[in-house]
Design a protein that fits this description.
Bound molecules: 1-O-phosphono-alpha-D-glucopyranose
Distance between the termini: 55 Å
Number of domains: 1
Radius of gyration: 19 Å
Length: 293
């Protein structure tokens, strides 16, 4: 059997209103960071963690995501005839061989927990990963979910990615409490969704990477609407705490919040600096652009 996490869920049914008008027709997840759509970065990360089944939780406005991962026959045929082998490879590598995509429709926007629950029949009873593509994480060595899959193989239960957040913004995150367990791990004793700063048990915020046992589905099915009137994944993880170990993991790498404009632009600049096609010229032009603003 292949090591790592075989199934990864991508909850991508959100409206993306912060990026209007760009997201009026184009799903937010297809906006590019340099030349790869946000969802492509997320898929590459899942595949690096061992995934061979990608489960996208979409709605009827997100069908273009399925088109992106489909074979583009006309394009490939043209590239073959023009002998553009490099471009052909780029087009084909969108979905590596042996990796399957499954699309599940979330018919009502009832929250992240509900979106994950929609993937239940595809995931079955295996441990699985969740990536929220808005949280773009870049690490030159090992992508974040692969780091977590490795940790999960050692500690079992659930593993959630965490990082210190500005204490004034705890109400934007799931926040954990717990004890240091060494090796960047925190044994979680409590997890709360979007607490006000005065109620937050710490400043360790959950960012969009999870490794979860299938048991979470039973707990999600029994979860009542919580913060914001939505069925929260955080609340089901809080229920899981009574049964299985839950660890927070301080991943290595830089995270960009691509759910907002600033994070998206910063991620774009950071990735353009990683790209030999743009890095040198950008190093020269960026100070000038910033200086004249
Ligand atoms: C979701 C989760 C939250 C987590 C965050 C990470 O919130 O509910 O616990 O901290 O993702 O990005 P959202 O950003 O969807 O409101």
């Amino acid at each position: 059997m292949k090591p790592g996490l075989r199934k990864v869920v991508f909850p991508v049914a959100g409206l993306g209103t912060r990026f209007l008008p760009a997201t009026k027709v184009v799903p937010k997840e297809l906006l590019p960071i340099v030349d790869r759509p946000l969802i492509q970065w997320a898929v590459d990360e899942a595949v690096a963690a061992g995934a061979d089944t990608l489960v996208f939780v979409i709605n009827r406005n997100k069908r273009a995501i399925a088109d992106h991962f489909d074979v583009a026959y006309e394009l490939e045929d043209t590239l073959v005839r023009r002998e553009k082998h490099d471009l052909l490879r780029v087009a084909r590598e969108v979905l590596p061989e042996g990796v399957e995509t499954v699309y599940v429709v979330q018919q009502q926007a009832l929250g992240l927990g509900h979106a994950v629950l929609c993937a239940r029949s595809v995931v079955g009873d295996a441990d699985f990963g969740v990536i929220l593509p808005d949280d773009f994480i870049f690490d030159r060595q090992t992508p974040a979910l692969a780091q977590m899959a490795k940790v999960h193989a050692q500690v079992g239960g659930a593993v959630v990615a965490v990082e210190p957040v500005d204490p004034q913004w705890t109400s934007r995150y799931g926040i954990i409490d717990g004890e240091d367990a060494g090796d960047e791990l925190i044994r979680v004793s409590a997890i709360v969704e979007k607490p006000a700063p005065e109620d937050a048990p710490s400043n360790l915020g959950v960012v969009g990477r999870y490794v979860l046992p299938a048991r979470i589905f039973d707990l999600l099915a029994a979860t009542e609407p919580g913060a914001g009137g939505e069925i929260q994944l955080t609340d089901a993880i809080a229920a899981l705490l009574a049964e299985q170990p839950v660890h927070g993991y301080r991943f290595s790498g830089k995270r960009f919040d691509c759910g907002n404009k600033l994070g998206f632009v910063e991620a774009t600049v950071a990735m353009a600096m990683e790209d030999p096609a743009t890095a040198d010229a950008l190093r020269e032009s960026l100070p000038e652009i910033i200086g004249s603003a």
